[in-house]
Design goal:
The chain has 514 residues and is an alpha/beta fold. The protein is built from 16 helices and 19 strands. The chain has 3 domains: 103 residues; 248 residues, Rossmann fold (3-Layer(aba) Sandwich), CATH 3.40.50; 89 residues, no CATH class. The strands form 3 sheets. An 11-stranded mixed β-sheet has the order 8-7-19-18-17-9-16-15-10-14-13. A 6-stranded antiparallel beta barrel has the order 1-2-5-4-3-6. Helix 7 runs antiparallel to helix 8.
Length: 514
């Protein structure tokens, strides 16, 4: 025999099919899930707002009157609240077209009902944590929906983003996912996690073969901008001629730089002729030659003429990591856009049946997304992030945007993420920016973001049947990048130096005895 339902309130007037006003004696909390029986259905709801009131303590009373009433009366508080109607659990969360009648009882949702909503482990779902108000109910998210509809993980620094990303990575690796992390701070390079007894992490070489770059990417390395029309014209001609010669076999890959600079030198010599039609371009040609030579020298450690493309290094069922911790934001922008462009092109080739495609889907995690897809700076990565977000679902390319500065993140890119995990957000500008990108994020839910503790999050989107406040579980894999203790490090250095000084003093004291 089932346990009797726990009644926590009664519906009041002015309810709609989507929102219900109710009164309670105090046995319900913000974020609780409740059940209402009406219209022949058992409907699930979410307590999104609560306020406390008492008729005894009117605003007309002074402080002395209030103190006397406190001594004379018991607990006379009443809770007034609002419930978001989520739908009928047994009918694929169908929302009745009529509101619950006033007087309808409100019951605390049963564990059985909630487990039916938030799922169980299967081949497409992973456990991310438990309900914040019901620790006995695990919450599962749909991997297919994450990959096809994309994901944003947002929080203040120290809010629990890295642990959340790690939990998702571990769950996906258990499903043999192919994951690519653009690691801005070297946090995931030493990620300690094994699948079937083998290390699941592969560090991709941060090397680029200039032969495999698009002209626009190559031009960025050479610092030739959109306004340098003449330099752009000659560099483009020389680059295309060099690539065509390498493709046809007329020039070896190892001769790339010599062929490119040779072509530019030919233009310079031609411009040196006083009768030449391009004599006025001589200064610009010399300038672009200098830029290419500086580029070759400055990026000598980055360029490798015998390196295969980064996308071709990605392995299935692994956590593939590109470590950007030793390069500046400009280089990171060029490489991220280059990799995303190639991922999209190669997945298109495979899906359309052409040779040279990438045969498996890839889920890309972009750390510091507000830098690469900035709302104020026009980066190449922003273009390709938005493009992959729009087109990727058709070709098995998923994106996860991770940021502690949501308001600095391009709203178009953020709006493409149909799934969100929002941890603690305090700054009102960040909250408004997120709400602007997520139409289903109500003002009541936004208000909860600043009161979340570390590791607590609001989950919403296609990956989960209904929005949920969740306590994210702790990842089992170890990673670097956690907060460092300055006090511990100071103490370590102090002890080390003091020990050295004591040894030196002891040595001199010993010498003085003789």
């Amino acid at each position: 025999m089932g346990r009797e339902k726990q009644k926590v309130g009664v519906c009041l007037n002015d309810s709609t099919s989507r929102e219900v006003s109710f009164i309670s004696d105090g046995s319900v909390s913000l974020g609780d899930y409740v059940e209402l029986d009406y219209d022949g259905r058992t409907v699930l709801g979410f307590v999104k707002h609560l306020s406390c009131s008492s008729k005894l303590f009117s605003n007309d009373l002074d402080l002395k009157d209030v103190e006397r009433l406190k001594k004379m009366s018991r607990d006379h508080r009443v809770l007034y609240g609002k419930i978001s109607i989520l739908g009928d659990v047994k009918s694929n969360m169908f929302v009745p077209r009529v509101p619950p009648p006033p007087g309808t009882d409100v019951f605390l949702a049963s564990t059985q009902t909630l487990k039916g909503v938030f799922g169980r482990s299967d081949e497409r779902k992973i456990c991310i944590g438990s309900l914040l108000t019901r620790e006995d109910v695990d919450v599962y998210i749909d991997i297919d929906q994450i990959v096809s509809r994309h994901l944003a993980i947002l929080a203040i620094t120290g809010g629990g983003k890295s642990n959340t990303v790690s939990v998702i990575i571990e769950g996906m690796l258990e499903k043999h996912a192919s994951i690519l992390v653009f690691d801005m701070h070297g946090e995931y390079v030493n990620f300690d996690y094994r699948v079937d007894g083998e290390n699941a992490v592969k560090r991709l070489e941060l090397k680029l073969n200039p032969v495999h770059l698009s002209y626009r990417e190559f031009r960025q390395f050479a610092n030739v901008d959109d306004n340098s029309f003449i330099q752009d014209r000659y560099l483009k001609r020389a680059f295309k001629a060099t690539i065509e010669d390498i493709s046809s076999g007329a020039v070896q890959i190892s001769d790339f730089w010599g062929r490119l600079l040779g072509e530019l030198e030919n233009f310079r010599e031609l411009a040196s002729d006083k009768e030449s039609d391009i004599k006025d371009d001589r200064k610009s040609i010399i300038g672009v030659i200098n830029k290419v030579e500086d580029m070759k020298e400055s990026y000598a450690e980055l360029f490798d003429l015998f390196q295969k493309p980064i996308v071709e290094q990605i392995e299935p069922a692994r956590l593939n990591v590109i470590d950007f911790s030793h390069v500046d934001e400009k280089i990171a922008d060029i490489i991220v856009s280059h990799v995303l462009r190639n991922l999209l092109e190669k997945r298109k080739r495979f899906v359309h049946g052409y040779d040279g495609g990438l045969e498996f889907p890839v889920f890309s995690i972009i750390e510091e997304a507000h830098i690469l897809a900035s709302s104020s700076v026009r980066t190449r990565s922003r273009y390709w992030i938005s493009r992959v977000a729009r087109e990727g679902r058709k070709f098995g390319l998923g994106l996860c945007l991770v940021s502690q500065r949501p308001k600095a993140l391009d709203v178009d890119a953020l709006s493409q993420a149909n799934n969100m995990i929002i941890l603690k957000l305090v700054e009102p500008g960040d909250q408004r920016h997120v709400q602007q990108a997520a139409e289903s994020l109500s003002s009541e839910l936004v208000e909860q973001l600043s009161s979340l503790n570390v590791g607590e999050a609001l989950l919403m989107g296609k990956m989960i049947p209904v929005p949920a406040l969740v306590k994210i579980k702790l990842a089992s894999g170890k990673m670097s990048g956690n907060d460092r203790s300055a006090v511990d490090e100071w103490e370590k250095v102090y002890r080390s130096r003091k020990s050295l000084i004591d040894e030196i003093d002891s040595f001199y004291d010993y010498g003085e005895e003789f």
